[in-house]
Amino acid sequence: MIASMRPSALVLLAVAMVGAEARAQAVRGRVVTPDSVAVPGAIVTLLDSAGTPLARALADDAGRFAMRLPAAGRYGFQVLRLGFAPTHAAALRVERGQEAERTLVLTGAPIPLRAVQVTAEQQCVGADSASAAFAVWEEARKALLASQLTRMTRAYTMDVEMFVSRQSADRMLPPTNRRSEMLGTRLRALTPVPPEQLVREGYLERGPTGERYFAPDEDVLLSESFASTHCMRLIPTDSASGVLRLGFVPRPGRTVPDIRGVMTVDRATSELRRLDFMYTGLRITEQPGDPGGEIIYRRLPEGSWIIEYWALVLPFVEQYVRQQAIPPMVSRNGQSTPGRPAVIAEGLGRVTSGGGVTRIRFGDTILWAATEPPGPHPPVQLPPMRY
To answer: 1-110: which CATH architecture?
Structure first.
């Protein structure tokens, strides 16, 4: 059964970016609203005196966080919360060997994505942009950061169901499906690839035994490498849909296989729902059927984030028999019937491989469970985007 109570002791480890000398100093505390309500899933960033990020932590269901410090000194804090502007807290002095306590009260103003207007701008949004597209990207980044921190700092495991579905170009044939289950795995849905490698070599690796396509995980999407090689803009959507769609494409001049895609963000909650992408810069023989993929994100009840579902769709060209051959026949009275040759057709088949999380566990407690098994989704058509 799914537990209705959250674990009372979540393992929170600081994501250290400052070297291994952190030994004794630490800071712990809570993130709360001005009326003292805990804020689960808030992202707490430790800053040095110059404002450089040193470490990050994700607040648990009670708003608690904990981080080790590299040395005694004066440290500031930035707190990110979905749907709100960042909060910057006053600096805290921590002495050698001290474990300091700090309550961080959120003061950031709400960011109303409901009011975001989508225009037909063709600009390339940069990291210092004040555009509506950048505001939506900042909300998506919070979810990606939270998903990254969940994977790196939570003592959770997940049960996963993997699948491979092959649909022949002959649509008269049903798809063939293979499934497998993995229990108690770590919180990493996608194979990690260094962002710098993707910039240098692209999202497709061609080898003597076939091709290997790469999908972007949180580390890639949050990297400077991705930001420096892609443009973003908002895509018009039906206002009744309740979502904003943030499109991204490779910047002009990219010559290696890359990706373009759309991030879908909920207007009401500012939550990142999904990412759909297609591969660009492919050879002519690799282009039929628009290979691509999808990634679906989920916010857990206690504020953590996971990649709930992922899939890669690779079309292939296939010849199949549309009409069977009929040999010539001679009847008993000697009359002959001419034969009919087979009719061979050519079309696109599709292989969809991926998986989905069926349960998130903390020890023997089930924090969340899917309501249905994962499987292939209908392809999502991406709008054309050029700059």
So the answer is: Sandwich (2.60)
- Residues 252-273 pLDDT 10s: 889 999 999 999 999 999 999 9
- β-strands 204-207, 176-185 pairing: unpaired
pTM (two decimals): 0.84
Q: Where are the domains of the chain?
A: 1-110, 148-326+338-369
CB environment 367-378: b (16+ within 10 A), e (fewer):
bbebeeebebee
Residues 6+ apart with CB under 8 A from 238: none
List Cβ neighbours of 382 (8 Å cut-off, separation of 6 or more): 247, 260, 261, 262, 276, 277, 278, 292
Q: What is the DSSP letter of 318?
A: E
- Please give the DSSP secondary-structure letter assigned to residue 285: G
279 in Cβ contact with 312 (< 8 Å): no
How many other C-beta atoms lie within 10 A of the C-beta of residue 237? 16
Residue 199 CB partners (closer than 8 Å, separation 6+): 225, 226, 228, 229
